[in-house]
Design a protein that fits this description.
With about 270 residues, this protein is α+β, with helices and mostly antiparallel strands. The chain contains four helices and ten strands; from the N terminus they run αβββββαβββββαα. Helix content is about 25%, strand content about 25%.
Length: about 270
């Protein structure tokens, strides 16, 4: 069952769900591009690794899942204790879910002969959008090094929350930015909630032209492959930040129509 929305589904921005969506987009983009690039280029999933810690990293709070599991330690036998002394109070066990080592996945298109990076594709996560955080610093440094080395950088931001470059901030709900080392200025696709996601240019090296990447097709396939229609709670509110009143009404209208179509689909299938 397709998403209720013609473009980005704002419910997929839920911090609990986003890591899975992010993983699906990375793999989906690779699956879309790889057959178009071979045999002259190939696509690899790469990882930036950095260490995070509460109180030291401004981006720690937005890492997902940002929770701890607390449980009571169950004893297989009653505590024996010391004669004449009080029994030891049973403690709780607190398990940290966030690993201090974070691995940010992104894509690199490489020349099949020289293995040099031609273009990197970054799908932003919340920690990449907290200025000064370790995730942000690691991404910005990687971008700087690749651009200095002559590679292009394609940055896909499908999260309304968090910070953006001043040049593109506040101009749309979502945005895709293409950095070309040989071009002055940025190539930008501004995307609003009601828009279809764009077909973007993925730069290669001469004499090969840019490859089109249909981001909407990728997202639609990720949505259906993961069966998000059965997982997402569309009865709740859209994850923060809050929508404009007109957009909030539009979202509810889309969901109502989607539910009616979904009900009709299941009735006709039974």
């Amino acid at each position: 069952m397709p998403s209720p929305f013609p473009g980005m589904d704002p419910y997929l921005e839920d911090p609990v769900l986003w890591p899975d969506v992010h993983h699906g987009l990375i793999e989906g983009i690779r699956a879309e591009l790889a057959p178009l690039l071979t045999p002259h280029f190939y696509v690899r999933v790469e990882h930036r690794v950095y260490i995070t810690a509460p109180g030291e990293d401004p981006g720690y709070a937005v890492l997902v899942p940002d929770v701890v599991i607390t449980r009571t330690m169950l004893e297989s036998r009653p505590p024996t204790g010391w004669p004449g002394r009080p029994a030891i109070t049973i403690p709780s066990v607190v398990e940290e879910v966030i690993d201090p080592e974070v691995r940010d996945a992104y894509l690199e298109i490489r020349d099949a002969r020289s293995h040099r990076v031609v273009t990197a594709i970054e799908v932003l996560s919340p920690a990449n959008k907290v200025k000064g955080s370790r995730g942000w610093q690691a991404m910005v440094e990687k971008r700087r090094l690749l651009l200095q080395g002559g590679a292009s950088w394609l940055e896909i931001d499908l999260l309304r929350g968090g910070e953006r470059l001043e040049a593109v901030a506040g101009r749309s709900d979502y945005v895709v930015v293409l950095y070309r080392p040989e071009q002055r200025g940025l190539l930008v696709w501004f995307i609003d909630l009601r828009d279809r996601l764009p077909v973007m240019a993925v730069p290669l090296r001469p004499p090969f032209p840019d490859v089109p990447l249909d981001l909407q097709k990728v997202l639609d396939e990720v949505y259906e492959r993961a069966c998000y229609a059965d997982q997402v709670d569309y009865t709740g509110s859209v994850p923060p930040p809050p929508l404009k009143p007109a957009d909030a009404q539009w979202v509810q209208a889309q969901i109502q129509r989607w539910r009616a179509e979904r009900t009709a689909h299941f009735q006709s299938s039974s």
